[in-house]
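Hi C.,

You asked whether I'd gotten around to modeling the 280-residue construct. I have! Everything is below, sequence then structure, no commentary in between.
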Amino acid sequence: LIISLGTSLPEMISSIFAVIKGSPTIVAGSVVGSNVTNTFLVLGVAFLFFKEKYVKIDLIDIDLPFLLTATLLFVFMCYDGDYSWADGVFSLFGAALYIVSTLKRNPEGAEESKGDGESKEEGEDEVIKVTPLTYGLLIVSAVMLYFGGEWTVEYINKAAEIFKINQGVVAGTAVALAASLPELLISARFAAKGKLDVALGNVVGAGIFNCLVVMGLSSFFGPSGHLKVAPETITHGLPMMLAAVIVFIFVTIDKRPSKVEGGLFLMFYVYYLGDLIGWL
C-alpha cells in the first residue's frame, strides 16, 4: 500500500501542476500511460527475470476486482472527454474504500507473530530511529517533487509543440516511460531474487491509485471543476489500458508467470506506443 502510494505521488504532483498551468489533458494521458507501462513494460521485464515457477501472492479476492472496477470506472468517466469534480469525489470515495479494506486485512505474518513469543519480543526491540537526516531527506524530496512536477509539465508542452502532437500523447508515452524506469529496475531486481509478488502488488496498487486518487484530486484544480481528456487518449489509450488490466488479471490468476508471457507483454507495449503516437 505504501509503495503504491509512493510510486503514484510523482504522477499526482505533475498532474496537479498540469491542471494549474492550463494543460488538463496531460492528467488522463499520464494515468493511462503509467498504468499501461507498469503492466506491459515493467511486468514484461520482470517476468523475463523471474526464475521460479510459482509466485506466492493472493490478489484474487480484493485487489484484482478492485483494479478492474477502478479501471472500468475511469474509462466510463473519461469516455465523454470530460472528467468532472463529481467524478473525482466518487473516485476518491472508492480509493478510501480500498485503503480501508487493505488495512483491515489480516496478514498471515501477523498471526504468526502473535503465536511466537520470541518473534514478538524481537519485534518490540526493533525501534526505527528518526534522525535529523531523515527530516532533511523528507524536505529535499518534497522540494524535488515540487520542481520535478513543474518541469515535467513545462517539457511536455514543449515536446507537444515540437512534434505537433497532443500533450496527452506525450504524457502517455515519454513521461510515463521515464516515470516507470525506477519501478522497472526495482521490479527486475526483485523478480531475479524470486520476489515477483512485490512487482505484482505494486502494479495493482499503483493502477488503483492512479485511476482514483490522481484523477480525483486533480479534478478539484480544473477550470470549473472539469478536466478535458484528449481524443487520442479516448480512442487509443483507454481501450489499451482496459485490455492491459484484463490481460494482467488472466496472467496473474494462475500465479505462474512465464518468460513467454513476458515477451508478449513487451510486444503489447511496443504496439501501444506505435498506436498512440500514430506509427501504426
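If it helps when you're writing up: Residues 40 and 265 are 5 Å apart (CA to CA).

Thanks,
B.
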